[in-house]
Design a protein that fits this description.
three-stranded antiparallel beta sheet, 8 strands, single chain, 139 residues, elongated, 1 helix, mainly beta, five-stranded mixed beta sheet
Length: 139
């Protein structure tokens, strides 16, 4: 087989594969949502260059919501915003009972300044973001 025919065959095959994997907009049956954090367990202090497991308790608003992980953003050198992320599936029926669950993540202390953790805890009646703030000094 010539080089041109081989290249054409590969490109045609790839185009067919990618076309068959195309997702239609109306086939999406889930949405990512923030989950309200109600508490977090952190140590009294950190040691530089040590790793800590931070445990968080969050609310699962229904049986159609599943924990996906954490979105942790660095707002300043030692300020971290932490949001628990869930996937909400559009299914019927769905239990509406609120459930409190636990998840954790590992954190490495890289700076010798006090850390401020801001855990997303929902919105107030005016739609303003609310945070559970915890400071942890570094020894």
């Amino acid at each position: 087989m010539s080089y041109k025919k081989f290249t054409f065959l590969i490109l045609f095959s790839l185009a067919f594969v990618f076309q068959s994997c195309k997702l239609e907009d109306d086939s999406v049956n889930f949405n990512f949502i923030p989950l309200q954090i109600v508490s977090a367990d952190l140590p009294q202090s950190f040691e530089l260059n040590e790793t800590y497991e931070i445990t968080v308790r969050y609310l699962r608003p229904s049986g159609c919501v599943f924990f996906e992980g954490f979105d942790i953003t660095k707002e300043a050198t030692t300020t971290r915003n932490v949001v628990a992320i869930g996937t909400e599936f559009y299914e019927d029926p769905c239990t509406q009972a609120i459930e409190e669950l636990e998840a954790s993540f590992n954190f490495i202390c890289l700076y010798d300044e006090t850390y401020l953790f801001r855990f997303w805890s929902g919105e107030n009646e005016n739609g303003e973001q609310q945070y559970l703030e915890i400071e942890v000094p570094v020894n």
